[in-house]
Amino acid sequence: MTELQVDPAASADPAAAADTPRHPAATLPPDSVGLVVPERMHFAEPLPLRNGSQLVGYDLMVETYGTLNAERSNAVLICHALNASHHVAGVHAEGEVGWWDNMVGPGKPVDTNRFFVIGVNNLGSCFGSTGPMSPHPQTGQPYGARFPVVTVEDWVNAQARVADRFGIRQFAAVMGGSLGGMQALAWSLMYPERLRHCVVVASTPKLSAQNIAFNEVARSAILSDPDFHGGDYYAHNVKPKRGLRVARMIGHITYLSDEDMAEKFGRELKAEDIRFSFDVEFQVESYLRYQGDKFAEYFDANTYLLITRALDYFDPALAYEGSLTRAVAHTRASYLVVSFTTDWRFAPARSRELVKALLDNKRPVTYGEIDAPHGHDAFLLEDARYHALVRAYYERIAQEIGA
Fold first, then answer.
1. Is 250 inside a domain boundary?
2. Is-catalytic flag, 323?
3. Which residue from 159, 126, 131, 166 is spatially nearest to 297, judged by alpha carbons?
4. Where does the record place the region Disordered (predicted)?
5. Of 278, 309, 340, at which residue does a domain stop?
6. How far, in Å, CA of 214 to CA of 55, rounded?
């Protein structure tokens, strides 16, 4: 279990983008949070869901980094994107490095010498939290297709219970990139008094029709796989790998920019000359197939369906006749919003739409549009200008709370 590190003065009652890098424990860099072990938190109280049902008895996987101060005022929640997890930073025993390790750690932009950082694996995921692969409490068999459709709002409500478990009344910041940014935004809407700052990176206040279309094509690839078996493929001891592979290939294309793909692959051939076949001819084809094959080995198809649908449903302006300005009117946080010029999945225009709505309500907001060639995946990469912006913002937060 993850040890909850609290200053002695505090109360004793605390109440995967490109290939994931790996580091043997003996070669950990000095700015790593080091070896980390996740904690499984069980919640017996039913969780009401947006679809009208409830989840009875569920687990959430959690990792923490840094030390929670006596006032419990230095906590930062990191929300993950589609195929990530609670493993934000540090290294697991098998050598897997956290998906945002370049952002979180000692002396890094989110400095764990000053902040207590929490990563939570969302419900419906396939990395230990209760999801389609988990046993149904009534049958003992995997939920499969019977797992309820969950939303961003459901995840935020579950994360709030994690905060309660740690005795955290207000986060110094809630932060996320991509789908994680949607969760951070939802926190500021649903629990306006429970966070001082909201950091939204490479995200959007709602998906465009094009983005929903990409998700639909990806889901269709999974649903049409003969091994899907209506979502109950576990009982057949198979996985719909072909559909999941195609879904990942589709998604991966949208995470990269045309500029980045041209630089990485161009029209380079796999062999010395064309072979007039439908096998892999171009390097970019080889790359996509590799990414698809790798993803299909470790990810769960039902989870992919659930998370992409949660992306589709997120639209806080819907309850306000489509007005984002009205939707954010009751927020209390200060905001950092970051976008990347070549991100065409969640384009800068979507971030500017959020910034305008916040400014219309006179909310304090800092906006950074980073000129970077790497497309949507830029939020995961170590860019000097991007990290300097985030570092400066967290320095401001640290000064506010005396961290």
1. yes
2. no
3. 126
4. 1-31
5. 309
6. 29
Q: Is 343 a catalytic residue?
A: yes
DSSP string across 314-380:
--GGGGGTT-HHHHTTT---EEEEEEETT--SS-HHHHHHHHHHHHHTT--EEEEEE--SSGGGGGG
Query: Could you read off the pLDDT of 131-164 as tens digits, one per residue?
Result: 999 999 999 999 999 999 999 999 999 999 999 9
pLDDT, tens digit (0-9, with 9 covering 90-100), for 24-42: 554 677 889 999 999 999 9
Judge whether 345 is annotated as a binding position.
Answer: no
Q: Verify whether residue 260 is a known catalytic residue.
A: no
Please, which residues bridge with residue 54 across strands?
A: 48
CA–CA distance, 344 with 97 (Å, rounded to integer): 27
Residue 332 Cα to chain centre, angstroms = 23
* Active-site entry in 129, 134, 178, 257: 178
Measure CA 231 to chain center.
23
pLDDT of res. 27: 67
Per DSSP (E only), the strands in 178-212 are: 195-201
Which of 264, 285, 309 terminates a domain? The answer is 309
Tokens 């840094």, located at residue: 66
Q: Is 66 found in the same domain as 35?
A: yes
What residues contact residue 222 under an 8 Å CB cut-off, 6+ apart?
A: 228, 240, 243, 244, 247, 301, 304, 305
Query: Is residue 393, in this structure, part of any structural domain at all?
Result: yes
Asked whether residue 248 is marked as a ligand-binding residue, the answer is yes
